[in-house]
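Need a sequence for this fold. Nothing fancy.
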């Protein structure tokens, strides 16, 4: 089973991913890897987005910024090279993961959205990741947790939504606090070491 987390912008999807990661690494012996995106602000103004490695928050790069040349989403220019420097090695690790009988890997991806999907390598590896781990058993292999936009119509996201074994959660201000434990329990169940 793989999980998609969706919700309106600003509802807390990224915060949820970070809390899930922290809970997994502190309450279990399961390996977790991934990345998240965050706003870049100058005062009250959003000037772009950065991508950050969950395992080493010093390892980060520009996802998009206002101005410059290159592919755009709205007013933001996407820095594909910088994004790929962080995201691609993480995805490759998950694709190439070889589970032992007692190990599993959880990969957290924030997010699979319009900016990230401008990267051809990212699109290809996301597809490979879901194909490679389509039939993950409950006790070993790779489990994927991704955030996706709530809006419909992004081809790659709709392809993932249509896969068997995908469970989708919609985050709201009313349920976001209890979702961490609910999702972690689904991912690691009785492997908790509390």
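Here you go.
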């Amino acid at each position: 089973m793989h999980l998609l987390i969706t919700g309106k912008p600003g509802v807390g999807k990224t915060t949820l991913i970070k809390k899930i990661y922290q809970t997994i690494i502190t309450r279990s012996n399961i390996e977790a890897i991934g990345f998240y995106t965050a706003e870049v602000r100058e005062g009250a103004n959003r000037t772009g987005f950065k991508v950050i490695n969950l395992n080493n928050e010093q390892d980060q790069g520009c996802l998009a910024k206002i101005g410059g040349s290159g592919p755009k989403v709205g007013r933001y220019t996407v820095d594909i090279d910088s994004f790929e420097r962080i995201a691609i090695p993480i995805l490759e690790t998950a694709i190439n993961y070889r589970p032992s009988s007692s190990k599993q890997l959880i990969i957290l991806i924030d997010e699979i959205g319009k900016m990230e999907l401008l990267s051809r390598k990212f699109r290809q590896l996301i597809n490979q990741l879901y194909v490679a781990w389509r039939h993950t058993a409950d006790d070993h292999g790779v489990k994927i947790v991704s955030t996706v936009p709530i809006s419909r119509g992004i081809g790659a996201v709709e392809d993932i939504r249509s896969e068997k074994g995908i469970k989708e959660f919609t985050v709201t201000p009313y349920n976001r606090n209890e979702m961490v434990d609910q999702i972690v329990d689904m991912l690691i169940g009785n492997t908790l070491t509390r």
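For context: Residues 91 and 125 are 7 Å apart (CA to CA).
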